[in-house]
Specification:
Distance between the termini: 18 Å
Largest sheet: none
Strand content: under 5%
């Protein structure tokens, strides 16, 4: 289905799939507990579908994936960073059967990379991700996965254990970028694989990181209750070590609750959302300020970013408007700053302050054009603004729509 509905809003996509299913508006409205009038307004863009919990219920009723209604995955553009081998090459690396069999050793004729080299290459990929250079991340990961597997298969003893930990970190990076470009099924495979290697390494920090990675994979697949439950379960595993936790464990633990807060908000569980945010805020307080341990960008500012994002998911738009625009994110990595910019744009748009919403999204695009191009929400916002225009859209809006490939 990729590309067939890219130029449709989510509401128009609902109508497209409803017709494909041979379903009347009356039947679909009944399945999601809504009126025909509501569904008609959704399909004609007179009501914005702004909450993923509602979109998920429509996807379930239509028997399609959440990504089908969000027009994901999006096509990763070729660029100087990416070259002409993008997600398919990463898919081939993740699904390479040789990595799951004794044949893996036969596939490598050269010496494995040193663990120092491997750590450096993994750090480079994470830095590229946090700079929102998606093409570069996708380009580097296939070879990095092969090298990390080679190291894990070649080394013995303590070096083998360290190599397994690094292999888990590499899969974590793969999950993170795959979620961002909407490759949710592949992200799940990578998360499951990475968690296995992390557990085999016995590295508590990497295990905790991969548990968060699985949470993100569940989130991206619309499994919000499961992601929220995993947050509780994972926290239970880590709790006994928290009293003596260093900055790395505090950061990973706190970020786990941030992911969980998004899951519970999308599940419309306000109480759990607030409890998770409170737990994350306590970890940030103990950490003492914003940091980037284990590439988490964790600290008080990231907690505040999630307070804004969860408020939107729960329908508390005024809270998001009060908190979001004035939040100083300048000390955080570009990826975090741009994602917050999308949330601010969404909040302004929900309050019909379209000019301010457009300005927020343009500022985010200036920071991270690839990230804005590939986020379903930025594309949906721009499409809805285009549809709402009574006359010709402004040059700024029409140019943005062209860059996002939605017109």
């Amino acid at each position: 289905m990729r590309g067939m509905t890219d130029h449709l809003t989510i509401g128009e996509r609902v109508a497209w799939y409803r017709r494909r299913r041979g379903m009347s508006q009356e039947v679909l409205a009944g399945l999601v507990g809504r009126t025909v009038d509501w569904l008609s307004k959704v399909e004609n863009d007179r009501i914005d579908l702004d909450r993923l919990s509602v979109i998920k219920s429509l996807a379930v009723a239509l028997d399609v994936a959440l990504g089908d209604l969000l027009a994901e995955p999006s096509l990763l553009d070729w660029s100087p960073d990416s070259g002409d081998r993008t997600v398919p090459a990463l898919r081939a690396a993740i699904t390479d059967y040789r990595q799951l069999t004794p044949l893996a050793a036969l596939a490598q004729a050269h010496e494995p990379p040193s663990l120092t080299e491997l750590r450096s290459e993994i750090a480079d990929v994470w830095h590229a991700y946090q700079a929102s250079r998606y093409g570069l991340v996708v380009r580097r990961l296939p070879a990095l996965l092969a090298e990390a597997h080679h190291a894990a298969g070649a080394y013995q003893g303590d070096q083998h254990t360290q190599a397994l930990s690094l292999l888990g970190q590499t899969y974590h990076a793969a999950v993170t970028i795959l979620v961002k470009v909407g490759e949710t099924d592949l992200a799940w495979i990578a998360a499951e694989r990475g968690l296995t290697y992390a557990q085999n390494s016995g590295d508590q920090i990497v295990v905790a990181s991969l548990l968060r990675s699985v949470t993100h994979a569940l989130l991206s697949n619309g499994r919000y209750d499961a992601a929220s439950q995993l947050t509780n379960d994972a926290a239970g595993l880590l709790q006994s070590d928290l009293s003596q936790a260093g900055p790395e464990l505090l950061s990973v633990y706190g970020t786990l609750f941030l992911a969980g807060s998004m899951a519970s908000a999308r599940a419309e569980d306000r109480t759990t959302t607030q409890a998770f945010l409170k737990e994350a805020a306590e970890s940030a307080r103990r950490l003492g300020g914003d940091a980037n341990h284990v590439w988490t960008a964790f600290g008080p500012t990231n907690v505040a970013i999630h307070q804004v994002a969860t408020a939107i998911e729960l329908g508390d738009v005024q809270v998001a408007i009060d908190l979001g625009p004035g939040l100083d994110t300048s000390a955080l990595p570009i990826e975090r700053r741009a994602r917050h910019g999308i949330a601010v744009a969404q909040a302004f748009s929900l309050w019909n302050r379209t000019d301010e919403a457009l300005e927020a999204l343009l500022q985010a695009e200036h920071l991270a054009p690839e990230q804005i191009r590939h986020h379903y929400l930025s594309r949906q916002l721009v499409l809805s603004w285009i549809r709402q225009q009574k006359g010709k859209p402004s040059h700024r809006l029409s140019d943005l729509a062209r860059r996002l490939r939605v017109t």
